[in-house]
Design a protein that fits this description.
It contains 17 helices and 16 strands. The protein is an alpha/beta fold and 434 residues long.
Amino acid sequence: MKKESVVQVLEQQQQVKQPIWIQNAAQLITLASHKKGPRIKEEMSDLQVIEGGSIWIEDGKIRAVGTMQQMIPICMPRAHEAKIVDATGKIITPGLIDPHTHIVHGGSREFEFEARIKGKGYMEILQSGDGIHATVKKTREMSEEQIYNDTALRLDSFLQHGVTTIESKSGYGLDLETELKQLRIMKRLHEKHPIDMIPTFMGAHVVPEEFAGREDDYVDYVVTEMIPEIARLRVAKFCDVFLEKGVFTAEQAERVLLAGREHGLMPKVHADEIECYGGAELAAKVEAISADHLLKTSDEGLQKLVGSGVIACLLPATALILGEPPARARHMIDLGIPVAISTDCNPGSSPTTSMPLVMNLACITMRMTPAEALCAATYNAACAIGMEEIIGSIEVGKQADLVIWNVSNYQKLHYMFGVNHVHQVWKNGVKVVG
């Protein structure tokens, strides 16, 4: 990040003391919840919309929410203190939350994009030594400062698209030194950039080339050396693993996830992306907070998720780029599985920073309704990173993370495909875009 950007953020933080009164929104999409935990079935469509909505923000927190008529007697005595923001003709939603990214990495893989267009498959590219391996090589080679600066630019793009919190995985180091380099970058950006970054350790992303043919030895290394040190340094909240045929077996993945949990790292699972391989079943077994991808999950696997508390984190942009049928979101929601959505931002299979595009794709390719897609990108996404008590909805006491959109209703936000409708983004009560 440029020095002036850091200074600007610090100056913005000093402005938080002035109350903010946002007025006259055509729709205020609060997603206020009357239950704990993720929403399921018809709950995902209950957006708690306030027509003619208004919000009072103070000290970075939401202090009052209601219609303008309700808010006038509450706010008028202090209106002279406040910065007034006119949202006439616009909608307001919680800040978007991306619960699955690989944003911290070196280099890019546009050559792989072209190779895939010419017919090469994901696993064929990986087994040839490219794919994740190519990014591992670049991430090891590049300096921490170079990767920090490149990642800050990606975060800037996320912010411009309405994202205020992001989960970020390591996994492009595959040795302790480089995994820690990635996690240090996340910590620095979390402290300096307006977007909050929630770190996940993913040393079990793939078996590095120096361990080829010694997969169990690499799992030993992850379990006995990497996880204890990651936990000791307290640089990650979650532990993730790529359970896939030709990558890690269910037994190896379970060993990694249980070791992570023993050290205080909550499990997440890359599940059933390329083949049906028991990912959903393992996520339910280890009580993971989320099972991600689920493109190839069987009916039996989905049944294991019902009532398990595991959130299905679906990544429609990845399916689109891989040329695969999308995850069965409609069926999952009907079964009662809570669904979140994400960009899966990564240099190979989903190099996008646009959550609005992902919401579009959730509706178009996975047959989610606009209301369900918005819930999946806010409240349920917050649940998928264990932060629903703080963010994900517009409720008194929560962080004032908001997006004001240049549309008059939330259906139009999803209907106009591939358009960025962001008017303003507010993070902790500070305007950071617009």
